[in-house]
Amino acid sequence: MAGVRRSLAGEVNRPPGQRNREHPADRRNISPKGCPVRIHLPLPQAVSALLVATSAYVALNAQVPSSSPVGAAAVSHDRLVKAHAEPASWMTTGGTLQEPRFSPLDQIGEQTVPNLKLAWFKDIDTERGQEATPVVVDGAMYVSTAWSMVKAYDVRTGAVLWEYDPDVARAKAADACCDVVNRGVAVWNGKVYLGALDGRLIALDGRSGREVWSVQTTDTAAPYTITGVPRIIKGNVIIGNGGSEYRVRGYVTAYDAETGRQVWRWWTVPGDPSRPYEQPELARAARTWRGDAYWKIGGGGTVWDGMAYDPELDTIYVGTGNGNPWNQGIRSPGGGDNLFLASIVALDPGTGRYKWHYQTTPGESWDYTATQPIMVADLVYPRGRRRVVMQAPKNGFFYVLDAKTGQLLSAEKFSPLTWATHVDMRTGRPVEVDSARYEITQRPVIVAPGALGMHNWHPMAFHPGTGLVYVPVTVNNAAYAAPKAFTLNPQGFNTAVDFASGAALYDQPGAPARGNVESYILAWDPVKGKEAWRIKNDVYGASGLLATAGNLIFSGNHKGEFSAYRATDGVRLWTAPTQARVVAAPATFMVDGQQHVAILVGARGLPDGQTRTNPLSANNSRVLVFKLGGTAMLPSAMPTTGAGAPRIRINPPLATASNEAVIAGEQAYAANCAVCHGATAIPGAGSIAPDLRYSGLLPIRNGWNPTVRDGDRAQRGMPGFGARLSQETTDAILAYVIKRANDEKAEQSAQQRP
Ligand code: HEC
After folding, report:
1. Is 717 in the pocket of ligand 1 (CB under 6 A)?
2. Whether pLDDT at 271 is above 90
3. How confident is the model over 602-617, as pLDDT tens digits?
4. Is residue 50 over pLDDT 70?
5. What distance in angstroms lies between residue 463's CA and the mean position of ligand 1's atoms?
6. Does residue 29 or residue 355 have the better pLDDT?
7. Nearest protein Cα to ligand 1, atom 34
8. Which positions ≥6 away from 24 have C-beta within 8 Å?
9. Integer CA distances (angstroms), 295 to 26, 66, 250, 286, 338, in order
């Protein structure tokens, strides 16, 4: 498979994984330009004092370092620790190592933001979810996309410096619970670091995109995936993984950034008790588990997203995931806290030594991960300033912990959750609602939130000026029920939850609205532990956030807009069309004295009423970059395709079906699918649905059936056809689409020839 893709790219002679394009003409020195950044904030005095005290705003250097060539990625620990004082760059996906997603830049502010316009944009050649925050340093912007690809752009022009595709086997999509996404890269000492979906950690040369080293961080026989961002602390690349719906045991690992050699690994849950525990605290953790199903299935607790680092305390905070299976009655019959599931864990980044932990949901049974974004901040309490760690995990409580000791300072409901009444501040434990434990009562129950959580991976932002944390909240619920029997599914999900038998509960009087109820941007006061205000979304869904000293917060939405709101009261001051759904978070930086804001757009399907305008991506995936007075324009319709038009390399499975099946499939396709996916399986200008020829589901019947027959994506506008079409007919449609994909492949190969 990989060979075909490489030969299609015309780069047969390159070693594996090095299919990249260099544009030497775009490499040049950026001349230094004086661009002093004004920092004046309408801040309360106490907060201004705090900012000075924490040196957050001192020694601002908003110039692009003059000595670094474009793509130098000359990032050191010192530079990372002082990233807040160099706001010309956006050096980590979270902005700084503390990950507040706040920028001290204010050229784009309340007064000027109405003049914010598109500076440049670049089409992205995948049509799955785009979740990455751009990283910008030394004149280059690095973005990862679906399928773990990396793009490097010249920040001034948007010219492509290089592109890298790790050639993740498309069948790996079957192990990814939540799409083949990637949330961003890290940069360090001339290199760009990527966690690939198939579990590889890859170091790329910042200027050429060539692979420097690559290590397999997971057992390739197990359904581990990586979608999260590597963090680089003092020369160690720290990376977790996902897969807790399947059958894996969670851990986080540090590798030497120069060599890829493993430095330490910290396991989140105990393994086989007949073998020695890898870390001392696992012996203690094992006493909180029952039975032996957990270590045989894996236990879960994967570290798939949130982490943050405090340079003052030299501590990395890591969020751990849900239990595997979800249902605690199967995973750990008889209960127990099941450490260290659903916890924030403080570790020494040099050694991986455990410092403390706080478990948000002891004995979790609803997929309540605590992998959501974590941030380190200084909060100003009436009694003085405190260094804290904050998280708003899936379970619906907003936690504030002392960064040094892990002491719980606040745990308040930020959303209408129903599984617990409150957190007991004396014990630090939630006080559960008994009926929520479906595995104990053996009765189906509607619980809020459902598995996607009141807040998921979508980044929140902290504004030290307003003192508020802005959280993308998704209010939802689900009916949980214990299954009649549980048998391990070696291929797919192992939740041990029966989602069907509780469905009837929604028909009862007084039942809540089913599923996804509403979504909004919540402004949360972490000192008072309560809501300040909220901005309701017209279309349900979460999108990542950015806060700036211009008294602004930036966020996309699922209606197809990118907007700026006043940070103090949420009034919308500016909006621009994105032509795509937005889930990722923005970044901001300076180019030649001008502040820019960048956002990656594109997620499942298109916003209502939006047509396709990107020849490379059915969901209009793009990088959009804005500045004051920009003059670029998004296309209003699909640009004409044809010879020379850019295309994604296609990689279909072999066409093995009979002619009869393909012909039957062609007819059934025309009658049932063409209306949305385009005639002859080629989406046209008015097509609302993705190009099926490029679907990652083609090689996997297990993937095709849930979408096409069972209606798994009905909510996203893809109806299930199980009741209307026979298995034979949908198999025939699959055969036809595979045939059409192979036609496309032949055409691409023909164009590739000189
Ligand atoms: C009413 C419009 C509509 C019709 C009719 C329709 N689809 Fe879809 N389909 C969609 C949309 C929208 C999506 C994107 C869903 C998402 O965002 O996950 C989709 C996605 C898919 C996907 C997933 C592609 C991927 O790789 O993510 C498959 C497979 C698919 N459709 C197959 C079919 C087949 C086969 C038929 C005909 C039997 C069909 N669809 C008919 C709207 C439609």
Report:
1. yes
2. yes
3. 997 899 889 889 888 8
4. no
5. 40
6. 355
7. 673
8. none
9. 52, 54, 11, 10, 11
